[in-house]
């Protein structure tokens, strides 16, 4: 069976269609209606939370703040030297968070010497000077990273009473009439813009007293031309900054005002660190393969982290209906399939001979046979219903998931690219192209909305045409928002990889199958992985000046990625 690979091409369907319906891929409908999620037979699955984390999560969901490393609350440091043991007990009863910080050796030593569990804190005199000579109005010891001096264990001094001869006197405030007599200059003074705008009525006069009017000499203000600003007034150079805003600015760099818009290098670095952490976390959700690394700029990382989700399988969109799981069948070869009789394999076009795509190397690795790599055919793997499922059968390759280490990197003009971090052998499976599976109609709409931007659409039209479904009914994989690292594989006119469609349901679902990347030659470590976006290319064709220009730099470069014709919704011949 000869098939054609196209990266987002509404191409002429393959001449050959396949088996009738009967078996289904591992696809499951979600209970919430149309949106369904593909549950494949692939080995990678999302890890569930550990029971401990689940417990913590449920506490958090219930409104509890579950502190992993409880920090002592500020009140834990505030302890009057006059506090009685009762006070301390009540403090302990209130503070539910006991400091868990690891103590320094000296602190531990002092704890050993101090057999009681009473808190020993520095004494603070009335003028704000600590007994150890440090001004308590200055930076706190905690802020300086120092421990307060341990006061000797002495009995608490008695409370200090004011001297007997000092008498406190309360002076009553003067009445309004008294104030008038004392300060006649406080008499209301009416001011206005000019005679014309002088306050007249009582209400206006009150407003004038409260300085609601500009001074009499000022020109009339046209409020329409005065820009409204909510920015903080800029401080003049000689003016000292208020202490509070200084410390706040340090801990919470403001993003609103223009002066703070340029983010400090440390903030930038820590943001990038956070983004990398976030991305790594996202990547870890894809089980079944080694972690993919990112050698990209912080800006690219930010974009990736914000707008992209890694998935380990297809996400089925509205209107995408897989065939039912009940149709899945399996072979009964045993733990290892017999290539001459296995019912999961498909026959050659013109004979009953079974197509065997894989071979096991001496190293034990299963790869696609070299002869098969030159063909345009589909691979039919065993299913989860086979007797060999879960064993080391050679006919389970793609469904085992990625085994190689990959890295996303910046290629420059061609955007991000993907490279392997270890040498690959010809025929070796790399990874699948996953993403959202959407209808062709939705894909067309997305494509026109994304005109001029990188395309991540991949048509699943290999088996359509002569079968049960028309080309218009085909599905498209969109790797834009949800995808695998393979979405970064760029085009080359002399590629080192190719996509082979793989069915795990004996081609019974003509619209859903895997798009699997295989190496078509030995690839040294750290080489960029590429494939041909348009392998059906006819070299005789003229280059479309409106098509996306190819920058692969190969000697046989065709000059364009794909014909622009698909943008107009016209099928190629
Ligand atoms: C599937 S994406 C590949 C990843 C993409 N480079 C990125 O940064 O996300 C396909 C897009 O990459 C760019 N691209 C891929 N191969 C290219 C090539 N040989 N020359 C120029 N642009 C290429 C095109 O913009 C194309 O639409």
TrEMBL record:
MF annotations from Gene Ontology: histone methyltransferase activity; zinc ion binding
Keyword Metal-binding: yes
GO CC field: chromosome; nucleus
Subcellular location(s) per record: Chromosome
Keywords on record: Chromosome, Metal-binding, Methyltransferase, S-adenosyl-L-methionine, Transferase, Zinc
Domain of life per record: Eukaryota
Stretches the record annotates as Disordered: 1-32, 45-168
InterPro entries in the cross-refs: H3K9_Histone-Lys_N-MTase, Post-SET_dom, Pre-SET_dom, SET_dom, SET_dom_sf
Annotated ranges, domain SET: 404-534
Polar residues composition-biased segments: 8-21, 123-139
Gene Ontology biological process terms in this record: methylation
Domain annotation Post-SET: ranges: 546-562
Pfam families assigned to the protein according to its UniProt record, in alphabetical order: Pre-SET (PF05033), SET (PF00856)
Name of the protein in question: SET domain-containing protein
Organism: Penicillium cataractarum
């Amino acid at each position: 069976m000869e098939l054609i690979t196209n990266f987002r091409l509404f191409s002429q369907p393959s001449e050959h269609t396949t088996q009738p319906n009967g078996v289904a891929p591992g696809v499951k409908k979600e209970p919430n209606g149309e949106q369904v999620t593909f549950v494949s037979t692939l080995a990678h699955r999302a890890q569930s939370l550990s029971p401990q984390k689940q417990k913590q999560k449920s506490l958090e969901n219930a409104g509890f703040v579950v502190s992993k490393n409880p920090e002592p609350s500020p009140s834990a440091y505030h302890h009057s030297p006059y506090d009685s043991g009762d006070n301390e007990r009540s403090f302990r009863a209130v503070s539910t968070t006991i400091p868990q910080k690891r103590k320094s050796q000296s602190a531990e030593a002092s704890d050993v010497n101090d057999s009681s569990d009473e808190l020993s804190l520095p004494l603070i005199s009335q003028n704000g000077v600590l007994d150890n000579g440090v001004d308590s109005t200055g930076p706190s010891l905690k802020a300086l990273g120092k421990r307060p001096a341990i006061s000797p264990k002495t009995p608490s001094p008695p409370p200090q009473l004011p001297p007997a001869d000092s008498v406190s006197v309360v002076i009553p405030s003067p009445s309004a009439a008294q104030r008038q007599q004392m300060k006649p200059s406080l008499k209301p003074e009416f001011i206005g813009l000019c005679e014309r705008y002088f306050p007249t009525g009582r209400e206006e006069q009150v407003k004038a007293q409260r300085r609601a009017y500009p001074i009499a000499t000022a020109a009339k203000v046209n409020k329409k031309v005065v820009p409204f600003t909510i920015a903080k007034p800029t401080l003049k150079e000689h003016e000292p900054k208020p202490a509070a805003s200084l410390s706040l600015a340090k801990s919470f760099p403001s993003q609103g005002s223009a002066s703070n818009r340029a983010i400090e290098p440390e903030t930038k670095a820590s943001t990038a660190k956070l983004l990398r952490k976030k991305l790594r976390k996202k990547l870890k959700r894809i089980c079944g393969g080694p972690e993919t690394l990112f050698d990209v700029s912080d800006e690219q990382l930010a974009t990736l982290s914000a707008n992209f989700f890694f998935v380990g399988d297809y996400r089925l969109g509205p209107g995408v209906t897989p065939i039912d799981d009940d149709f899945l069948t399996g072979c009964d070869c045993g733990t290892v399939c017999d290539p001459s009789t296995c019912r999961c394999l498909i026959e050659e076009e013109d004979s009953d001979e079974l197509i065997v795509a894989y071979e096991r190397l001496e190293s034990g690795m299963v790869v696609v046979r070299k002869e098969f790599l030159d063909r345009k055919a589909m691979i039919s793997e065993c299913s989860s219903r086979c007797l060999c499922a879960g064993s080391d059968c050679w006919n389970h390759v793609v469904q085992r998931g990625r085994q190689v280490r990959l890295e996303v990197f910046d290629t420059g003009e061609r955007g991000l690219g993907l490279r392997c971090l270890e040498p690959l052998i010809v025929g070796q499976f790399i990874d699948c192209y996953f993403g959202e599976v959407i209808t062709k109609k939705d894909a067309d709409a997305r494509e026109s909305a994304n005109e001029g931007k990188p395309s991540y659409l991949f048509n699943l039209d290999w088996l359509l045409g002569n079968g049960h479904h028309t080309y218009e009914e085909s599905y498209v994989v969109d790797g834009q928002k949800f995808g695998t690292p393979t979405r970064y594989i760029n085009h080359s006119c002399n590629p080192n990889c190719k996509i082979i469609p793989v069915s795990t349901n004996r081609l019974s679902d003509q619209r859903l199958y895997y798009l699997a990347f295989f190496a078509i030659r030995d690839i040294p470590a750290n080489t960029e992985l590429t494939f041909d976006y348009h392998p059906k290319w006819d070299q005789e064709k003229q280059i479309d000046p409106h098509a996306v220009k190819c920058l692969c730099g190969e000697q046989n470069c065709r000059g364009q990625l794909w014909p622009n014709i698909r943008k107009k919704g016209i099928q190629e011949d």
